[in-house]
Amino acid sequence: MTLRWTAEIDRSVNTQADIRVEFRKAVTAVGTNCRESDFDDSTATTNPERWRALDGDADSAFFSKTNTAADQFNVVEMAELFQDEQIDATCLQFRAYLMQNGPNTETAPPDPSKTPRILSFSLEKVLTGSPDLKLEGVTEGSEGFSVGTSNGSLRNIQISLKNLNSKGINDTLAVDEMTNDGSFFVNLCVAYAPLNQPEPTLSLPPPTGNAAIPACSKAYAEIPNRFMQPGTVLALGDLPLWRPNPESTNTPKRFLRELYPTLFSEPGRYRVGIIIDFNNLIPEGTTGEVNNRAESQEFPDGKTILVTITEPPTFQLSLPILAK
Predict the structure, then answer these.
(1) Could you give the count of Cα atoms lying within 13 Å of 122 in the half-sphere of its Cβ?
(2) Range of the domain at 189
């Protein structure tokens, strides 16, 4: 966590001009508003609520440096003030001394018409941890991607999407905490070969930062960012989030099983794989970016599953019978 401010200080005439920013914090009762009386004004070093000067220009005798294109902010780490990144506070307060002649208040500045200006003040919190999207069931290490057949027909594609950082739940951030209330995509890749031909090969490209659709993708799910909170597991096959490629995001979403008759329409052998967030819309960190294809020692370039289909799948829609 850092305190940051920008300043405009002209030292061409008033060579000692400076801005001293001071900061303090206090803890108040739950449900109460911050008041001046909530702070202890004692200057004793044992007082945790005392004013503390912020040195934004430690390389000089000044407290603040002027704003430039190359170096815009004065920055002070909270840990420098409180020896701890975890700050317990419900009230925060800052004040700024605009000094034309530095700490010298006995002598008039060379040019009293020139006064330093503070342009902004902010507190920046850097979130630790990150989301980590992976194909995994509720239990750690459990299967998150499988394809089921019965009597030569496709019966189910099971896709469990989990948000859990490898460091644990406390280091896992919600996807919408790192981004905005948008969405990201999960692509279903399929390769086909007739029964009398060699089995198909399927290469799952690693996620990239562009807006392209992976060439292997035959369908995709659009996942709202807010769905993926820390520890969340989504059974994507059971949610109406899917569209076939190359249909646009304007077409209605469907259950994945509704697409089976189209995607697996011919007898043959099919190889199936999953790519999470191919466009790298979600910042998952270094370790989080390398498991978006269900990579493992067995499948270093992403897990693919081979199935043989002799009977095209069907999708049945049951409607109630109404009697008048």
Answers:
(1) 8
(2) 133-309
